[in-house]
């Protein structure tokens, strides 16, 4: 996936400025930056939920034709007002999975995200961490080639965060390209293959995670890693 | 019904005329609420989810029609169903179906307007997930109606309440014929005009009791449903 000089203007504000980026298969690409830096907007543009005001988004070299097999998990995923199984069946049906295999797939997905045994519980009664894992299972129901995650561990406790991170590693190891936004540097260190640092809607540094964390090239990245406030 | 007899005495003695009136009242009002839901809920959801020229005007009209005067609706249905009217050949005037038609017209705007508000609020919550899951327009409407079902029970109850309490339209199109189109409200109007106030008041209490009972049943179903579906 390639973004070429993408601008996003909304309500008189420039949310993204001249963002150019190539996202290639492999280890997770992680967008980092302070609040309001444009991480979520960039994810939404990449997912196709927001149209770019100018610039182009290319998938495999083709504009405006994103693959159907892409999915996103939002920071605060919305559970449908039905059971855990009901949520999964809905996602599987929307992904075109035949009715005859939905139950088996739902069981597999619940097992994958370690939610066995809660299938009949109302989804909205699950804890925050369980809801996030169910949202991940719902996204995986599409068998995505690219999975976008918008701060999936924000407001989760360490145990729930660890569970989500293990799932991200597992999914990534199974060949799904994970593109994720977070403002948690520790999480970015643990998961990222590539880092994109955003500030005020613009990319100020991008590259391999190891290089970024060990020898950041820009002053902005050095200050961000040092824990200074980027204003 | 016997003159100068209390409604409670008639109720306790199992008076067939009283039970016929209560039964017809329930049948007409519940039928109207159900028909109005079948029309009003998809209509409200459609207005909530679509953007078109004049949408604001449609919403204002829909809200205004919640206060539609029953006698005007009764008159319009009467003119339509009378022998010289466009639907006169149906032969429905002064029959329970005519009463259902009039009440359906009265209740539909209430259910449509309340549904629109409910679905619009839910849509704001679900919009991103639907886009992410590539859900089509028809599926969005059916999902939102299903997921909003517990809130929509309130819309249904408001519609039923309006129908059950209404007298203006059904007395015009039904004619208040004893044993055929007489309902609780038309019977109360008649007994009051005859000066039989104790019977009218008793019938009023029975009507209120029925409305409260139906509301309690619907509320209980809503609570039970929420417990199981979240």
Query: What spatial form of chain A do the alpha-carbon principal axes imply?
Result: globular
Helix content of chain A: 25-40%
Task: Give the total of beta strands of chain B.
Answer: 0
CATH topology of the largest domain in chain A: Rossmann fold
CATH superfamily of chain B: MetI-like
Q: What can be said about the biggest beta sheet of chain B? A: none
The CATH topology of chain B is MetI-like fold
Main sheet properties of chain A: 6 strands, mixed
| CATH architectural type of chain B | Orthogonal Bundle
Largest interface: A-B, 26 and 17 residues
Descriptive account of the structure:
With 231 residues, chain A is of the alpha/beta class. Chain A folds into 2 domains: 2-67 and 145-225, Rossmann fold, CATH 3.40.50; 81-141, no CATH class. Chain A has 8 helices and 10 strands. A 6-stranded mixed beta sheet of chain A has the order 6-7-8-3-9-10, sandwiched between helices. In chain A, strands 2-1-4-5 form a 4-stranded antiparallel beta sheet, covered by helices on one side. In chain A, helix 5 links the parallel strand 7 (146-150) and strand 8 (177-181). The longest helix of chain A is centred in the last third of the chain and has 16 residues, at 158-173. The two termini of chain A are 30 Å apart. Chain B is built from 10 helices and no strands. In chain B, helix 2 runs parallel beside helix 5 (96-132), helix 4 runs parallel beside helix 8 (168-174) and helix 5 (96-132) crosses helix 6. Chain B starts with 6 loop residues before the first helix and ends with a helix. Chain B is globular. Chain B has a single domain (23-183), classed as MetI-like (MetI-like fold, Orthogonal Bundle). Chain B is mostly helical. Chain A binds chain B through residues 47, 49, 68, 71-72, 74, 77-83, 86, 90-91, 94-95, 121-125, 138-139, 142, and chain B through 125-126, 128-129, 131-135, 139, 143, 147, 150, 227-230.
């Amino acid at each position: 996936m390639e973004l070429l000089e993408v601008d996003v203007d909304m309500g008189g504000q420039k949310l993204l400025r001249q963002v150019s980026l190539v996202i290639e298969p492999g280890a997770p690409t992680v967008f980092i930056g302070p609040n309001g830096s444009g991480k979520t907007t960039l994810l939404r543009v990449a997912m196709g939920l927001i149209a770019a005001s100018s610039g182009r988004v290319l998938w495999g070299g083709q504009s405006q034709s994103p693959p159907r097999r892409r999915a996103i998990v939002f920071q605060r995923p919305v559970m449908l007002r039905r059971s855990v199984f009901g949520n999964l069946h809905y996602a599987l049906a929307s992904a075109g999975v035949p009715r005859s295999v939905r139950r088996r797939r739902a069981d597999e997905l619940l097992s994958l995200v370690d939610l066995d045994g809660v299938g009949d519980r109302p989804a909205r009664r699950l804890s925050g961490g369980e809801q996030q894992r169910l949202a991940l299972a719902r996204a995986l129901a599409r068998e995505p080639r690219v999975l976008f995650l918008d701060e999936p561990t924000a407001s989760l406790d360490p145990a729930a965060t660890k569970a989500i991170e293990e799932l991200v590693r597992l999914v990534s190891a199974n060949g799904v390209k994970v593109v994720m936004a977070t403002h948690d540097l520790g999480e970015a260190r643990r998961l990222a293959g590539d880092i994109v640092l955003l500030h005020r809607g613009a990319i100020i540094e991008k590259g391999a995670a190891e290089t970024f964390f060990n020898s950041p090239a820009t002053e902005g990245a050095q200050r961000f890693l040092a824990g200074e406030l980027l204003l | 019904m016997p003159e100068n007899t209390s409604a409670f005495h008639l109720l306790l003695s199992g008076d067939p005329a009283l039970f016929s009136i209560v039964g017809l009242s329930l049948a007409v009002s519940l039928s109207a609420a159900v028909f109005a839901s079948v029309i009003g809920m998809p209509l409200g959801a459609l207005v909530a989810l679509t953007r078109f020229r004049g949408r604001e005007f449609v919403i204002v009209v829909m809200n205004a029609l919640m206060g539609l005067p029953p006698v005007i609706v009764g008159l319009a249905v009467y003119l339509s169903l009378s022998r010289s009217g466009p639907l006169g050949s149906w032969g429905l005037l002064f029959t329970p179906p005519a009463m259902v038609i009039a009440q359906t017209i009265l209740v539909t705007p209430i259910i449509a307007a309340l549904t629109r508000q409910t679905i619009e609020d839910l849509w704001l919550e679900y919009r991103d997930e639907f886009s992410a899951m590539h859900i089509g327009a028809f599926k969005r409407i059916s999902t939102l109606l299903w997921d909003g079902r517990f809130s929509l029970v309130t819309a249904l109850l408001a519609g039923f309440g309006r129908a059950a309490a209404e007298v203006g339209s059904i007395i015009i199109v039904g004619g208040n014929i004893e044993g055929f189109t007489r309902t609780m409200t038309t019977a109360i109007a008649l007994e009051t005009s005859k000066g039989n106030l104790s019977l009218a008041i008793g019938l009023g209490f029975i009507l209120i009791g029925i409305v409260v009972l139906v509301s309690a049943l619907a509320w209980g179903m809503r609570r039970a449903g929420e417990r199981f579906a979240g």
